[in-house]
Amino acid sequence: MIKKFLDKLMGKSTPGTSGGKPHFGKREEVPASVHGINPELVDRRAAEVVATLKQAGFEAYIVGGAVRDLLLGLRPKDFDVATNATPEQVKGLFRRAFIIGKRFRIVHVVHGRGREHEVIEVSTFRAYLDNAAAGQVAGNEKTSKAQLSGMQHAVDASGRVLRDNVWGPQDEDATRRDFTVNAMYYDPVSQIVVDYHKGLQDAKKKTLRMIGDPATRYREDPVRIIRAVRFAAKLSALGFSIEAKTAAPLVQSQTLLAEVPQSRMFDEMLKLLQTGHAIATIEQLRKLGMAKGIYPLLDVAVERADSAFVKAALVDTDRRVNEGKPVAPSFLLACVLWEDVRNGWTERLNQRQHPLPALQEAIDEVFDKRIGDVSGRGKLAADMREIWVMQPRFEKRVGSTPFGMVMQPRFRAGFDFMRLRADVGEVEEALAEWWQDFQAADDERREDLMDQAREEQKARQKAQPVVKRVPRAAPAADPRGLPSAEGAAPDAGSADGDAAFPYEGSAPKKRRRRRRKPGGAGGGEGAAPAAAGE
Questions:
Q1: How sure is the predictor about 149, in pLDDT bands with cuts at 50, 70 and 90?
Q2: SS3 per residue for 61-126
Q3: Which of 40, 272, 414, 473 is 20 to 30 A off residue 526, Cα-Cα?
Q4: Do 175 and 128 contact (CB within 8 A), yes or no?
């Protein structure tokens, strides 16, 4: 702070400044008659948080993307609040409030319980600081934990901000935000919008413009590169585009993402694909020349986005999000990586491995190659594995299998996955329709459906050519060293199987040798024929 004061006194320039004077912008208060925000689109609980803070004598506003969406006539999905109260002061005003974060300390104010709960994120106005005056560490968040623990403002060797918990006035808080359309403040009590960087004008011009020098801002926080793509994708349907100066350093700045923790990159990748604009995101990445290099798993998604199955999954994810339905990252990632699992499985089956162990082995290989240690081997991996392992079991529609399937917690995800496979012709449409009926049917109807499945299975078996085997006294080893016909796996297109997708249970069943009845040495009624050629 002393260095910053001396630099200002001596007129030295710092990033985002000119002649030592920061460009904090001029405060402009825009009345409701001009901005036209519909108060009915404002979340009631967010408005209550603002009102509580103001009643306690603090400044408080709805801030960020929520204000942008309100100006565009959209109903925001999330509402954030900014205030001049410290995290401790905010926490003291609400019964259920929790301080979280190290890099940026914020408060989560929780309303409601269970599935109906809502979290309002409250942040304190932050000072705009010269990163050249910040404490520097040689490592990152993990390798420099001890050093960072006592710092309020710190950067790594590349200039990426690792700590930013110095509070300041509202104009400085606005300057440290990323895009002008995300740097406006809305007071739901007075219905005034506060704008420092012509964000309202940029919203009308449908322009995404970075505050300050774009290359410097990307270096401070490389995740802003991904945010630029995400906002461009979300707002592209409304005609928004990234300003040329803001877009110019994007490709060159991609290398900075290598320093971002993998867990954060994984979360940002999911935001790109699971916020209702996955198809538009793929288009933006290709348009900006960023189809590769952001994150390995995202590279795979972009590469396969034009394949029938992955495209169907992306379209379905966008539809569900826009209809307000939940989406799970395990489902979408299972769709993106299904090609790898299927190919690995088929390769092992061609090597005469047993179907189920072959499938498990193929899944393990995909986890090691594509996902690594991100999210560990926890719930995400378990859910993906269950979706994949369930697929061959859908082919079994007799016995107790169907009843056990519909009782599984992840049945719906597995069925939706199979439903997409049917939509693109990977499995028969009739199979998906059968399971659609079975899961919703009563017991009597389920028995009818299983009888139908048995009849279909018998018809398929009759339609296949009968292969007569030559009787032999004892099995002989094949001189080529190949397995005997008895132990060979059937054709991929046989029985209930799908030619492109061998299923669990496709391995031949072991034949049981019939026992002669006592005293039946002469070949009684129940005895097996002498040369039956089993």
A1: low
A2: EEECHHHHHHHCCCCCCCCEEEECCCHHHHHHHCCCEEEECCCCCEEEEEECCHHHCEEEEEEECE
A3: 473
A4: yes
Active-site residue 43, yes or no? Answer: no
The DSSP line for 148-172 is: HTT-SEEE-TT--EEEE--B--HHH
Helical spans, DSSP H, in 323-428: 329-336, 338-350, 355-366, 379-393, 401-406, 411-423
Q: Which of 155, 162, 81 is nearest to 125 (CA)?
A: 81
In whole angstroms, what is the distance from residue 210 CA to residue 413 CA?
A: 40
Q: What's the token pair of residue 10?
A: 């001596």
Supply angle C-alpha 74, 75, 79, rounded to 5. Answer: 120
Q: Which helix (H) or strand (E) holds 173?
A: helix 170-175
Determine the pLDDT at residue 371: 79
Choosing from 43, 69, 80, 316, the catalytic residue is 80
Distance CA 42, CA 187 (A): 10
Per the rule left: phi > 0, alpha: psi between -120 and 50, beta: everything else, 424 is alpha
Q: Catalytic site residue 171?
A: no
Query: 160-177: per-residue pLDDT in tens?
Result: 665 566 788 999 999 989
* Top-confidence residue, 480 or 197: 197
Known active-site residue 80: yes
Burial label for 225, CB within 10 Å (0-12, 13-18, 19+), is buried
Amino acid sitting at position 267: D
In the set 178, 221, 416, 498, the catalytic residue is 178
Q: Which of 12-26, 116-130, 357-371 has the lowest mean pLDDT?
A: 12-26
Phi, psi of 268 (to 5 degrees): -65, -35
User: pLDDT confidence of 461, banded at 50, 70, 90?
Assistant: confident
DSSP per position, 420-480: HHHHTTSS-HHHHHHHHHHHHS-HHHHHHHHHHHHHHHHHHHHHSPP-PPPP-SS----TT
Burial (CB count within 10 angstroms: exposed 0-12, middle 13-18, buried 19+), residue 108 = middle
Q: Tell how far CA 305 is from the center of its chain.
A: 15
Contacts of 320 (CB under 8 A, 6+ apart): 326, 327
Buried b (16+ CB within 10 A) or exposed e, 210-224: bbbebbebbbbbbbb
The one-letter amino acid code at 128 reads Y
At 182-223, the pLDDT tens digits run 999 999 999 999 999 999 999 999 999 999 999 999 998 899
